[in-house]
Amino acid sequence: MAQRVDLDGKPVAAMSICMIGGGGFIGSHLCEKLMAETSHKAVVVDVSSEKINHLLRESNPWSSRIEFHHMNIKNDSRLETLIKASDLTINLAAICTPADYNTRPLDTIFSNFIDAIPVIKYCTENNKRLIHFSTCEVYGKTIGSFLPEEFRKDPKYYMLKEDVSPCIFGPVEKQRWSYACAKQMTDRLIYAEHAENGLKFTIVRPYNWIGPRMDFIPGVDGPCDGVPRVLACFSNNLLRGEPLKLVDGGRSQRTFLYIKDAIEAVLLMIDNPERANGQIFNVGNPDNEVSVKELAELMIQVYAKVAGVPSSSLSTLDVSSEEFYGKGYDDSDRRIPDMTIITRQLGWKPKTPLDKLLDDTLQYQHQTYSSAIKKVLSKPSN
Fold first, then answer.
1. For the chain, what are the domain ranges?
2. Residue 256 near residue 354 (C-beta atoms within 8 A)
3. Predicted confidence (pLDDT) at residue 194 exceeds the cutoff of 80
4. How many CB atoms lie within 10 A of CB 274?
5. What is the CATH number of domain 94-367?
6. C-alpha to C-alpha distances, 144 to 183, 193, 229, 251, nearest whole angstrom
7. Neighbours of 137 (CB within 10 A)
8. Distance (Å, rounded) from C-alpha 14 to C-alpha 37?
């Protein structure tokens, strides 16, 4: 493999990367990228290896550069040893499905704040660099949502900037914000360790990264009563021929970024510490903004082509947020990332339009799950 160079033309030395939560959606794509395009070694820590098993097989030519440690970081003393032995730690571990924020707020807070504390501590004490995955949800509601109607069309009131935008959450009884609050506290702890003790950090704020291997399909590779994030929820409805459920009419607007574009950004952060250290990066695609209702309609059109079924056989259904998520749900109205900092520091811009990323993703969902869904649906109900 040719010698890699960073954005300033300097050679990139091979390093050992401890990837906490590296067996999930983002981690699996990052591992593939690291194995295929770098000489870095991945030390993956997670409670499941299912999404990276194809990389761990001895027959895989990269198997010598990736190792898996089955570990729950809540109570395993091996974590510090692995961080200490690595050059870089990437923390991806999180409970990040909105259905859990209401029903499992304690687990959400522990997973996203309390469990991150030792990771930050070990990186600081051992002088190790940390790339931590936060969320765009830390911004909460936009200023625009509180303004009179005549001001609401101005995009400046919806653009979220890492070093300017305030974090606006709902009241405590709206437990949906437990995730955002926990993530914000972790961001603040990391920044405090940097300011007081010199921690070398990069914070990543993803904006709805989607693609193959995202979340799970209930009753196939996840619990029957599980509620994944919106893309997998809609995929599950499409695979089963059920109406796509639009929470509160699907009015909320989101931007969506293809996972392959996102991983390009993360690799730039890994290979360019001088440009990435001390930075908080929005990583999203402001050009791919749609309402959740529009997303459902697009997915219906794409899936109809992928599965060879008439789009008229697929539909949507409005449901209340309390009916779908339970009491205590609340949400932000829009999340549009300002891309100034990541473009300036790393020269990164998203590439993939929404129709292309939906086509790739739904092709994968159909090929991976359609047969299993047919078997589930063919079983007699009790």
1. 94-367
2. yes
3. yes
4. 11
5. 3.40.50.720
6. 23, 33, 25, 15
7. 24
8. 11
Contacts of 200 (CB under 8 A, 6+ apart): 127, 128, 129, 130, 194, 273, 277, 278
| Number of CB atoms found within 10 A of residue 192's CB | 12
Return the beta strands (E) in the chain as ranges.
16-20, 41-46, 66-70, 88-91, 129-133, 159-160, 201-206, 209-210, 244-247, 253-255, 257-258, 279-283, 289-291, 316-319, 336-337
Read off the pLDDT of each residue in 236-241 and give the average, rounded to a whole number. Answer: 94
Distance CA 280, CA 15 (A): 22
Does residue 101 surpass a pLDDT of 90? no
* Percentage above 70 pLDDT, the chain: 99
Output the pTM of the full model.
0.94
DSSP H helices, 328-353, are 340-346
d(CA 305, CA 301): 7
Residue 96: both structure tokens together: 């990040």
Q: Which of 158, 179, 207, 303 is catalytic?
A: 179
What's the CA gap between 77 and 82, in Å, rounded?
10
Q: Tell me, what DSSP letter sits at residue 114?
A: I
Task: For the chain, count helices (H), then strands (E).
Answer: 14, 15
What is the dihedral sign for C-alpha 46, 52, 55, 58?
positive
Instruction: Assess whether 258 carries a catalytic annotation.
Output: no
Residue with tokens 């997915």: 299
